[in-house]
């Protein structure tokens, strides 16, 4: 069977998984201030984890390579993803210390969030045995750049196996240039700033200089700016009444990976902007409700 043409594409997601503790508040409290939250959510988070959850929600078969450990908080995050249809490969399964916990405050009036997290600093992950077979069994590989040593190994294996690689460029990280040498598609946020790049156009140019074929830069509700071998353009983000922007970028990437992988390889050159538009619709929809899970229950 040709990869990318089946009804339920298989995606391998590599990167960060946290436990998110999210509170809906009227405002971010000041020093020594206590306030009562209107709502709360405890769920798995992190760019790769949320992207995998979004991919699975759309009908894909999602597998997550990450580091969690066996602490009870880690088991809570893993259980959340399993319930959403994501297969979790925990490369830190023997670790007893707590996973990365993201403390998130969402301001009710604006939907904007404030986040504090240790991110991927607790675990140094290396590629698992059987990586070649794992990569060969998927249709697309997405990497968020966290656990960089693992990300580079997986990206190289995917390149060797002829599987497309997608980078979720949330921010510039040490090792990013090495990773980019094995990346086919990069969809980056406005916070992803290569050295000397101060505009989306310069970021796109830098990505192409590193060998990335297709590239885009997102900016929240602003249009996505993209370029590829045969053209460039912008993709509008559908307007929505914003309740919570948490995870929107992650779901943009998960949805893009799903729609890109659902198209036959020979047709992808004509489908990049379409896949971005489909992904932007999903990201916009995720902003309409509080938390990172309510939008999935709405369909």
Automatic annotation (TrEMBL):
Q: GO MF annotations for this entry?
A: kinase activity
Q: Which UniProt keywords apply?
A: Kinase, Transferase
The family database entries (PANTHER family) matched by this protein are listed as: KETOHEXOKINASE, PHOSPHOTRANSFERASE SYSTEM TRANSPORT PROTEIN
Gene3D superfamilies registered for this protein in UniProt:
3.40.1190.20
Span of domain Carbohydrate kinase PfkB: 13-285
Q: Does the keyword Iron apply?
A: no
An example Pfam family from this entry, by short name, is PfkB
- Official protein name in the record: Sugar kinase
């Amino acid at each position: 069977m040709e990869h990318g043409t089946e009804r339920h594409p298989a995606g391998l997601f590599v990167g960060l998984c946290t436990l998110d503790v999210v509170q809906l508040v009227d405002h971010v409290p000041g020093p020594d201030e206590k306030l009562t939250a209107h709502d709360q959510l405890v769920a798995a988070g992190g760019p790769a984890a949320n992207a995998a959850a979004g991919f699975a929600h759309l009908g894909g078969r999602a597998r997550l390579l990450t580091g969690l450990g066996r602490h009870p908080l880690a088991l809570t995050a893993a259980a959340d993803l399993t319930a959403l249809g994501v297969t979790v490969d925990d490369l830190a399964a023997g670790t007893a210390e707590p996973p990365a916990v993201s403390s998130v405050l969402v301001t009710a009036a604006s939907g904007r969030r404030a986040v504090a997290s240790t991110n991927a600093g607790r675990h140094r992950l290396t590629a698992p045995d059987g990586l070649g077979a794992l990569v060969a069994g998927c249709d697309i590989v997405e990497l968020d750049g966290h656990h960089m040593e693992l990300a580079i190994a997986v990206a190289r294996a995917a390149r060797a196996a002829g599987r497309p690689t997608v980078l979720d460029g949330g921010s510039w990280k040490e090792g990013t240039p090495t990773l980019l040498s094995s990346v086919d598609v990069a969809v980056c946020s406005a916070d992803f700033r290569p050295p000397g790049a101060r505009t989306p156009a310069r970021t796109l140019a830098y990505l192409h200089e590193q060998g990335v074929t297709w590239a885009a830069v997102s900016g929240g509700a602003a249009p996505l700016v993209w370029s590829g071998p045969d053209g460039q353009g912008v993709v509008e983000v559908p307007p929505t009444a914003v309740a919570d922007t948490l995870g929107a970028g992650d779901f943009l990437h998960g949805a893009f990976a799903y729609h890109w992988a659902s198209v036959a390889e020979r047709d992808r050159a004509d489908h990049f902007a379409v896949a971005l538009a489909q992904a932007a619709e999903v990201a916009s929809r995720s902003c309409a409700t509080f938390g990172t899970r309510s939008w999935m229950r709405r369909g």
